[in-house]
Amino acid sequence: MIVSLGCDHGGVDLRARLRDRLMERGYRVLSYGPEDETSVDYPDVAVVVCRDVIDGRADLGILVCGTGLGMSIAANKVPGIRAALLSDCYSAEMARTHNNANVITLGGRTLGSELAWQIVTNFLDNEFSGGRHQVRNDKVSAIEASYMKS
Ligand code: RB5
To answer: Domain range for residue 41?
Structure first.
């Protein structure tokens, strides 16, 4: 599995920890964003990761900024992206099994690295349930499509 992983300056440390642990687990990681605290604008990184997912270069995306909020808002502007801002393990499981999220966003300044890793593994180790959740996801996609017609 290939994971596209990006951060802004608020997520550098957490991104580095997640990158190491993902690679230890055998994931291939495409990594974006600064390696130090150089200030960057989170939408610029979010769109690169989201394009990896939409274009099939990555299976899933993980975005880290200070709170995860900006990355979430930006990622969800990309058609086809279902980004989930996560801060607990139960929601991580639900984001995969119910929402079929293809990007998760995390707060580098709000989460400890161990909790963040547990969130990531709860997300990665589950699968979409389909069924009634696919029906609901299709309705979400229909909302997106209805605003792209004009
Ligand atoms: C950057 O200071 C901060 O605004 C950003 O990392 C993120 O938290 C935005 O939502």
So the answer is: 2-148
* Residue range 34-93, pLDDT digits in tens: 999 899 999 999 999 999 999 999 999 999 999 999 999 999 999 999 999 999 999 999
Give the count of domains, the chain.
Answer: 1
First to last CA, the chain: 36
CATH number of the domain within which 128 lies? 3.40.1400.10
CA 13 to chain centre: 16
Find the 107 Cα to ligand 1 centroid distance in Å. 9
From 12, 39, 67, the mutation candidate for ligand 1 (largest count of ligand atoms within 8 A of CB) is: 67
Atom 4, ligand 1: which residue's CA is nearest? Answer: 66
User: Which are the contacts of 112, defined by CB distance < 8 A and separation ≥ 6?
Assistant: none
CB 34 within 8 A of CB 7: yes
Q: Which of 40, 44, 45, 65 has the most ligand 1 atoms within 8 A of CB, as the residue to mutate?
A: 65
Residue 149: per-residue pLDDT: 75
125-136, pLDDT tens digit by residue?
Answer: 999 999 999 999
Does any ligand 1 atom lie closer than 6 A to the CB of residue 34?
no
